[in-house]
Amino acid sequence: QSALTQPASVSGSPGQSITISCTGTNSDVGNYKYVSWYQHHPGKAPKLMISDVSNRPSGVSNRFSGSKSGNTASLTISGLQAEDEADYYCSSYTTSTIWVFGGGTKLTVL
Amino acid sequence: QVQLVESGGGLVKPGGSLRLSCAGSGFTFSDYYMIWIRQAPGKGLEWVSYISGSSSYSNYADSVKGRFTISRDNAKNSLYLQMNSLRADDTAVYYCARVGAYSYGCDHWGQGTLVTVSS
């Protein structure tokens, strides 16, 4: 049950675009279209931003988009805004019928 | 609207037990898989356990298997996590979350309850 691999931190200026990667294996990211992305502001409940690789729940800004290629999924945030500064986690369903999270990426808006 | 409210956290000694509860409202509780997720201080999110709507299916992370038991009472719209043989590394904020009806993402989360395991 190894965690998915995310960069520890990314940063960007307001208005720019950033991409956060999430690398797994053939047993999780590579085997299913069940990758989710969560935004977590410290002290608050995490928020689902993307489900099933690229589906955006109702109410989530279209500045957030997701994709997947092989064992790596990606979250792209375009038109960065100050309120996007948060921790972001990817998650995938696995062949062991469990979920696994990435280690998290701290996004800093410069 | 959908609400999930956790309770039952607190300070417990190593080797002790604790039972967490999660009360759901604003949706048909029995229709949804539910999940427990935790976050240790300064660490990332860690998936702990899931249970199907009818309680037919469940599973656990290796780190808690054999010590934690997930259950639910659909008549009370409640989810539980019985935690036994607690260790210092179980110290974390524990969240309950609902798995989406047509996806594998957790579309609603509670605010979390803090469990501290310390002597």
Question: Which properties best describe this structure?
Answer:
heterodimer; A: 110 residues; six-stranded mixed beta sheet; three-stranded antiparallel beta sheet; B: 119 residues; four-stranded antiparallel beta sheet; globular
Short summary of the structure?
Chain A has 110 residues and is mainly beta. Helices cover 0% and strands 44% of the residues of chain A.
What can you tell me about this protein's structure?
The complex is a heterodimer of chains A (110) and B (119). In chain A, 0% of the residues lie in helices and 44% in strands. In chain A, the strands form 2 sheets. In chain A, strands 1, 3, 4, 7, 8 and 9 form a 6-stranded mixed β-sheet that branches. Chain A is mostly beta strands and 110 residues long. Chain A contains no helices and 9 strands. The model of chain A has no long low-confidence stretch (mean pLDDT 95). Chain B has 119 residues and is mainly beta. Chain B contains no helices and 11 strands. Chain B has strands at residues 3-7, 10-12, 18-25, 34-39, 45-51, 58-60, 68-73, 78-83, 92-99, 106-109, 113-117. In chain B, the strands form 2 sheets. In chain B, strands 2, 4, 5, 6, 9, 10 and 11 form a 7-stranded mixed β-sheet that branches. In chain B, strands 1-3-8-7 form a 4-stranded antiparallel β-sheet, with no helix packed on it. In chain B, β4 and β5 form a beta hairpin. The mean pLDDT of chain B is 96. The chains are: A mainly beta (110), B mainly beta (119). The A-B interface holds A 1, 3, 32, 34, 36, 38, 40, 44-48, 50-52, 55, 57, 87, 89, 91, 93, 96-104 and B 35, 37, 44-47, 50, 57, 59-63, 95, 97, 100, 103-107, 109-112.
